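A further point concerns the way the authors explain their paired sequence and structure data. For illustration, here is how one protein appears when written out as sequence plus structure tokens:
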Amino acid sequence: MMFLNGLLAFGALAFTIPLAIHLLYRSKFKTIQWGAMHLLEPVVRINRRRIQWMHLLLLLLRCLLPILLAFCLSLPLLTGCRALPGDTPQTIVMIIDDSLSMAARDDTGVSNVDRIKNELGDYLAKMSRRDEIIWMPASEVHSVASTVGHETMGRDDARDRLRRLTASAGPFDLAKLVRAGIAAADNGSHLERQVLIVSDFQSCNVNDASLEGLKTLMQASPSDLERPAIHFLNVGGMLNAQSNLSVDSIETMSPALVPDRRTSFTARIRNASDKAANDARVTWSIDGINAESGLVSVAARSTSTIKHTTALSTSGIHEIAVTVEHPDALLEDNRRSVAVEVIREIDVLLVDGQPGKEPLEGETDFLAIALSPFAFAQQDQIDAVRASVITPSELLKRISEQPPNILVLANVATLSDEQQIKIADFVYSGGSLILFDGANLSDAGYAKSWNRGNGVMPLPAELDAVVGNTDKDGETPMRIGSLNSQYTPWSRLAPGDPRPLSGVDVFAYRKLNPRTTSNEDRDRGDADSTTDSDSIVLLSMSNGDPLVVSAQRGRGRVVQFAIPADDSWTSLPLRRTYVPMMQQLALDLIGSGRATTVITGEPMIVSLDEFRQDDDETTEPASSESKNKRTDSKAEKSAAEVAENSDREPPIFTVQPPHSGETTIPLPPEWSEEDAAELVWAQTRQAGVYRFRQILPQADGERVVTSTVRVAEVPPEESQLRDTEPERIAAAAEMIGATVHTDLDSIVTSEQNRRYGREIWRWFLFALLLAMILEMVVQQQIVHKNQGSIA
């Protein structure tokens, strides 16, 4: 404890005055003997001790009065036995929650983010100009490394950032926020540091994983001697009772879409309130154009789905959006978008290792029908897959002149070194390879060691002996087990049934040993081999043996079957599920490589081959004069091909985020070398549609613009509006020695006490007043008792 007016504290010595008076008068009393004294002796003997205690209490109160008055006038401060920083400059790390839930409005129509703008603006205005502020929206805190070298600013710049703050990001990890805030404070310029985390602390942000992360953080740095002061400003606590209807997700049953083929989309609508929402209007839109509307009713605390079926006529990436019209606390989540890719007809090349003389006797006959059923039936509907069958002798010429999207080898006995190298390069450059087993693979050299020229391409699994009897005679058929629940395309074959293929008869299959890609395997290949992944079992037998195994190889994938593509070993090709099973596999191999919809905060990756002008629909004129100009053959070249022509300027790439202007993106370093170059855009805090454009200068001075889109969306957890229990927030704060506040005034008071000490003169003033009252009461009690005794 310290005193602001230390000299006045010496006034406490005035307590000696009433003590001296008491001792002085006590020594001057006289004893007078008189005749009736013996009549009062019993009363005096009975009350003597009480009277002595009352006089002693009165003396103590009279001595205490000057002591309390002196302490009150000296302005004492509680310091906690430490030096006070006073008004020294400080570094303040402000981490502001800009997630979507902060935009929720209360009954007065004011959102949390608007309330914070007003209150925090006044707080910043009272700060010293010498203070250093590190501004960190929660959506920009991805790791501790992201805080290093973070921009510092003064109070005026911070107020300008605050005015431009918007709430549209996704949830955050509280432990990561605290860790990043401490790291940013440690990089500050001043010794005095403070971390202020402002949030509504939704339940999705303070989960068990966050608490475990905080516990780990404190265990890693148990000492709090150098830790900055941490404050939690909880602006939530009012949203649990608010109504909210949101679009949680938009899904399609197909992993890839083809032009003019009808596809069903399903939107899930969530009601996060305790009151049912009836007859809310839902509107579907495609590329910004309304397509269909309907009504939906959602019970309290539940979800409902609504479907829309359409056929997209052009290839490319399209935006599918769903909007629900309902007045609620959070209007921003009433609309959700996804970007879907419409690909051209998938070209699948089937290599028949044992062609048949009669229909359905060849190795690939069943598979060709399953992939292109409408073409086989000579119907007018369009197949997603165009399947063509060749012999192994035609493979090298066909894959060199017209590479397919997917290559299928069905019971192919031998492959030359040149064919193996060509197929390996095809896979590592992004193609897909499907291997079907058969009797010929027992002696196939490529199945044991696939030659890739300067290395090998390891197959997903090593081949072992055949299990069962391939002749089907007198054998009890074996059964297929469960599908891999993580492999979405096949999990939709029979929703709710984990074993939709359990009725298939399997008389024989090859024993597959899934391969784990080791560092030695990668070292035997080239640089592309570093992208190889461990094998994944997509389908297994009832005894657990793998039946279908998949693995990443370079930029492509290899899928390996333990059974043939025909009905020689199994009855699978004769089952109804065979057609959707093979089609979903083909669509997944083509459509799974491009992330068109990401979570806010995740980077967007755009391949330059998306800007190829193969369709007029993807072309945007750069000016009104070229609006109706068709792209010539030169403009259809990729960015890499244009760069090879020194007479032309390099292309310009731009991005237009939601509610923002167009920004130029630097050219990728590898754009002039290969068509596989990619644009990476990491600033995806805002939810919505991002439009990427490529501007190609032409020889005649005109410019041709091609575009593609990506969509960033907020996870649906932000729409549930569930505040974290105060006890849970207090427990999280206690782990790291933080304080929890519900208003900025309490933070100001807390910081005032930490920096200048806690003033306790009011406590001494209250004690002084109480002592004065007690002194009068005791005095009156003594007088009253004395009068009673005399009477």
Observations:
- The chain has 17 helices and 34 strands.
- The chain has five domains: 2-82+759-790, 90-240+721-756, 245-343, 348-591, 597-713.
- Confidence is low (pLDDT under 50) at residues 522-527, 613-619, 621-646.
- The domain at 90-240+721-756 is CATH 3.40.50.410 (Rossmann fold).
